[in-house]
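Weekly structure sync, notes
Attendees: PL (lead), two postdocs, one rotation student
Agenda item 3: pending single-chain targets
PL asked that the sequence for the first pending target be pasted directly into the notes so everyone works from the same version. It is reproduced below exactly as submitted, 168 residues in total.
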Amino acid sequence: MFATHFAGRGRGRGRQAEPTATTQQELSARFAGNVPDDWFSEPATVIFDRDEIVVTGHLAMPKIESDADPAVAASARIAAFRETTRDDRIAIAERAQATYERTVSWAVSCGDQEAAYTVASIPVMTRLHIEERQLLDTLIDAGVARSRSEALAWSVRLVAQNESEWTV
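Predicted structure, written out during the meeting:
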């Protein structure tokens, strides 16, 4: 199970204990050793933060007739993979979750299609002044977002799309 006790850092309560320390190399090796070689057409990529580990694999594109729709074939391959590997993915994830105290999520791509399974949506608390809250409300009023939470997530994605222009 996940650690739910408090570490007592900082002021007041509410900070969770740090999850088990790990490295990119350790996680990549663990999943390479646990994921069957025939699942993906290349080694799975693993990214992580303090809350979640995301394992992403690339599925081989199905062989199709020239007049068949490749997007439909790729979507069918992704759906079949999800269904046929579910029990094994759950078992692999449970072992890793017990060791690293993080949610394990899975994602796959096939051709131009992508799908993410059981990805975590982690709440992040922030304090905003009225001007910042008004900006989020403007995004809601404009139909960009349905809530302040969604507006903030939209803003973070926009920053991520443009961050490479800001690095020196």
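Discussion points:
- The chain has two domains: 24-117, 130-165.
- Residues 130-165 form one domain.
Action: rotation student to compare against the earlier draft before next sync.
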